[in-house]
Design a protein that fits this description.
- One of its GO terms (molecular function) is 4 iron, 4 sulfur cluster binding.
- It comes from Candidatus Abyssobacteria bacterium SURF_17.
- It holds the Pfam family Fer4_7.
- With about 90 residues, this protein is α+β, with helices and mostly antiparallel strands.
- It has a single domain, classed as 2-Layer Sandwich (Alpha-Beta Plaits).
- Helices cover about 20% and strands about 15% of the residues.
- It is built from 3 helices and 6 strands; from the N terminus they run βββαββαβα.
- The strands form 3 sheets. Strands 1-2 form a two-stranded antiparallel sheet. The protein has a two-stranded antiparallel ribbon with strand order 3-6. A two-stranded antiparallel sheet has the order 4-5.
- A hairpin with a 4-residue loop joins strand 4 and strand 5.
- The longest helix is centred in the last third of the chain and has 11 residues.
- The mean pLDDT is about 95.
Length: about 90
């Protein structure tokens, strides 16, 4: 794993990682070949990537989603990270 924490929060506590929409994925391997953090494995049987090591994904990175020609990769909204940080440090949303 490359990133042990983000903004002082342990990486394992942050649900930031890619999800692959099997209906949209065309099996091009762009994400699998691009990701320098070894987040994905390739599922030969289903010919699509699998986020086998989700916590290897760098928090706030979503480059693979932007590169995906079929828009099959999704990430949580960035607002989730702000809400998580506020909860972690005990800040209210008001």
């Amino acid at each position: 794993m490359d990133q042990l924490e983000w903004e002082g929060i342990p990486r394992q506590e942050i649900p930031w990682y890619p999800t692959v929409d099997a209906e949209k994925c065309d099996g091009c391997k762009t994400c699998f070949e691009f990701c320098p953090h070894n987040t994905y494995d390739w599922d030969e049987q289903n010919t699509r990537p699998v986020a086998a090591r989700p916590y290897n994904c760098i928090v706030e990175c979503s480059t693979c989603a932007g590169l995906c020609p079929s828009q099959a990769i999704g990430f949580p909204p960035l607002t989730m990270l702000k809400e998580l940080k506020d909860r972690w440090y005990g800040k209210s949303g008001t």
